[in-house]
Design goal:
The protein is α/β, with parallel strands linked by helices and about 375 residues long. Helix content is about 50%, strand content about 5%. A five-stranded parallel sheet has the order 2-1-3-4-5, with helices on both faces.
Amino acid sequence: MPISRGRENRQYSLVSCVTRLRAPGAGGNLSDIEEANGIIVVADDDKVLQTLYAEMLRAEGYQVLLAADGVEAIDLLTNESVDLGLIDVMMPRHNGFDVCRIIKSRQKTLFTPIVLVTVLSSSQDRINGIRAGADDFISKPIHSAELVARVKSLVKLRRLQNELAHCETGLFSLALSSEAKDPYTEGHCERVSRYAVALGEQLKLSSDDLSTLKRGSMVHDIGKITIPDHVLWKPSGLDEDERRQMEAHPIIGERFCAPLRSFKKSLPIIRWHHERLNGEGYPDGIRGEEIPLLVRIVQIVEVYDSLTTTRVYRSALTPNTAIATLRDEVLKGWWDGALTEIFADLIPGESSPICAQPKKAWEITPNVARKVS
């Protein structure tokens, strides 16, 4: 089926990325990842040892940045593009445990590997390092072969994580570019994601579930990238072939996202967001408790956003009318009634100032979204 050149290029880029991660001997095995040398921070207040470690690493082609204490190490790890930190435990102005704890507490540096270098040998010292978030330990005196082997392994892992992050970003970009070409659906995924997380917070779901809701909602319609524009924009009366193409988008979306482990928990959202509790949905016709809670959340907020935005086949409904429509569909056996009522409590009434904003989706008010029933 025809797709635009821009979408075709974005698909190729994403598929190439996923293929590199899945292909035998190309990404699925850490030893096969390209061994590009990286940037290492070496932090030690002993100048002799600092120079020794730097020479060992430079001999293997790594670029080395030197820090004489904990503050300098934190500054380099935070502000430079670093692949790994080799941090001595006993340092002034923040010891190695503190440096590790600070670096692992920041979103920007959370996944930067930290190797603690120590003469300490007690199990409690190791436990303290693990609690601080250390990725590995190495004991003094350091042997060159051991140091290089540990650094190479962690740098490879770091590069694999970066590759996965690149692919995830590609998926989000693909999903957003797919909807941006249609003025009727632009912003849909971001709003659905925001609504789903707000409802999840109201239900006191775990941070892991909230992350799954956010990720799955952002890409739930990514499979539509393969549907021709004339089908997406048709105001009514899809023929049998067009309907088959439209109803295949959840399966295609699932296939796009399945290779990435970070999307594993989001796959049911992508595949089943068009299912109904009475089994009349698609693509699998599952029903009732077969539909997971997170999927039922996305179903409701996705329909709400669709109802409250103008589409090619109708004008936008007001919040009250949209909630009334959802309640009618609950009676038909389509949606979870309890979740629908909880979501309805998060929606502003028609007297809200939001209603004065034309051509925009009705939004959850920030304050109400944080309340707990």
